[in-house]
């Protein structure tokens, strides 16, 4: 009995599956349709090259206006898993031909974007910041008016206006095997250091290398030396800059793609995240 179907060729089926990375083109599914076979020289295929308009008369979405060649062409094919294919064919009103063509185009575009994103992540530098407590100094600026109220040359200490100065080394690491170019550091948000060493406008940080910068923060306090000791003896990161955020911008090796790391002070160090 003659076969009355316009089926796809093996080559068309293979290309169709590869164009979506062997993933089902139904966006509500997107499951993988290929699996390692117990035979090391084979793979198990769990996908189907489905016809957008049917391969034969009385099939779902059959289009009499198509020629035999057009019906067998890859343009009339969509790659689906073995679960979605029968559902779509048994519900042709819910899955008309224009919708299936749209799903196919989206699946192929998603496959291309996945490849691009994977390549972008693998070939991009990643800059991170590390914050180390370096120094804390204090300078008595002047007597506070409160001194005359409490100071009796016996048991009480004078009350001063103090200038408190912190110095923090900030180390910028290139935690990748790719060069980072033209690194720029900006403070964003309400909390920030008083100053951070500036980088040259044109710079280059090689793989797994670092740049050391110095940041400073100043605060003023009114009290005795004992009160000051009790308040700041164990305080490494001042509360006023806890939560400060640095935006680190830089370019990859193409000099075209700008990347950003956001570094936020949490407790006593930076938490880095790529944006």
Task: Give a structural overview.
- The longest helix is centred in the middle third of the chain and has 26 residues, at 97-122.
- The protein folds into 2 domains: 10-122, no CATH class; 127-274, no CATH class.
- A hairpin with a 2-residue loop joins strand 13 (258-266) and strand 14 (269-274).
- The model has no long low-confidence stretch (mean pLDDT 88).
- Helix content is 22%, strand content 34%.
- The protein has 275 residues and is of the alpha+beta class.
- The chain has 6 helices and 14 strands.
- The chain has helices spanning 10-19, 68-72, 84-90, 97-122, 147-150, 225-232; strands at 34-36, 43-45, 47-51, 77-81, 127-131, 135-143, 160-174, 180-188, 195-196, 204-205, 210-223, 245-251, 258-266, 269-274.
Q: Which descriptor suits the 3D outline?
A: elongated
Q: Determine the fraction of residues in helical runs and give it as a percent range.
A: 10-25%
Amount of beta strand: 25-35%
Question: Which class do the helix and strand fractions yield?
Answer: alpha+beta
Could you state the oligomeric state of the chains shown?
single chain
Give the number of helices.
6
Reading the helices and strands in chain order gives HEEEHEHHEEHEEEEEHEEE
Query: What does the largest sheet look like?
Result: 5 strands, antiparallel
What average pLDDT do the residues reach? 88
Total DSSP E strands: 14
What number of structural domains do the residues give? 2
Indicate the low-confidence ranges by residue numbers. Answer: none
The whole-angstrom Rg is: 33 Å
End-to-end span in angstroms?
62 Å
